[in-house]
Amino acid sequence: MKKVRFMLLLATVGLFASNSRAQGFGGSGSKYLQLGLGYNQHYSLYSDYDRSYNTSYGAFNLQMEFGIHKYIGLGFIVGAEVSARTAGYYYGGVYAPGYIKPSNSPYWSVGVPIGFIANFHFLQLIADKAGKDFANKIDVYGGLNIGSGPVFRNVRKNYDNDPYYTSEVGALFFIGPHAGFRYFPSDKVGLYAEAGYGKSLITGGVIFKM
Fold first, then answer.
1. Strand partners of residue 206
2. Over the chain, what is the mean pLDDT?
3. What is the CATH number of the domain that holds 177?
4. What are the pLDDT digits (tens) for 108-153?
5. Which of 36, 144, 147, 198 has the smallest number of CB atoms closer than 10 Å to its CB?
6. How far is the first Cα of the chain from the last one, in angstroms, to the nearest whole number?
7. Whole-angstrom Cα distance, residue 100 to residue 106?
8. Contact yes or no for 54/109 (Cβ under 8 A)
9. Domain span at residue 167?
């Protein structure tokens, strides 16, 4: 019985030590997979009539990040997003009143954003400089994102017979900053929330340490 108790004590101490060494961001060599749902707004280009579109989407996001430095990670993002309504603009960002308003848009859109990210995990830096362990399960970071991808503009059924409106494949574009928060209740699985501009306005979901 004493031997069993001793083994359990060793296992408990080992688990505590392992958890105490865990970090919200593991630095060089670490890998993270994020799966989330969010709300995006992307600028899209089409060939017809020199028009551009600023479309809001509900989206599924997949993001992979690779640690290349103690506080820096690089990665890529892939998404699938659907917009129930599309707002129309002319080139130069000047809105044309009465042209296409989101409330009566003849289009719905599907986009596939693909891009790249760079993150700086500053909470880990602060924890290291302070000699504290408050970044063991929490990660706070900021970064930049840029990308493009195909977008499919589709005419609604009640506009099918109007030759003025046509379905078309275009290209979306996004670039901007973002900031995020991650919490790891276990060593391998956590939750995240992120806000910014570019790849998404706001998104959240689950994150896995690979």
1. 35, 191
2. 82
3. 2.40.160.20
4. 889 999 999 999 999 999 999 999 888 889 999 999 999 999 999 8
5. 144
6. 38
7. 8
8. no
9. 2-209
Decide if 64 contacts 33 (C-beta within 8 A): yes
Number of structural domains, the chain? 1
In angstroms, rounded to a whole number, what is the distance separating the alpha carbons of residues 104 and 66? 43
CA pair distance 202, 184, nearest whole angstrom: 20
Q: How many CA atoms lie within 13 A of 203 on its CB side?
A: 29
Please check whether residue 42 is in contact with residue 82, taking contact to mean a CB–CB distance below 8 angstroms: no
d(CA 202, CA 77): 14
For the chain, the DSSP string reads -HHHHHHHHHHHHHHHHHHHH--SS--TT-EEEEEEEEEEEEEEE-SGGGEEEEEEEEEEEEEEEEE-SSSEEEEEEEEEEEES-EEEEETTS-B-TTS--GGG-SEEEEE--EEEEEEE-HHHHHHHHHT--TTSSEEEEEEEEEEEEEEEEEE-GGGTT-TT---EEEEEEEEEEEEEEEE-SSSSEEEEEEEESSS-SEEEEEEEE-
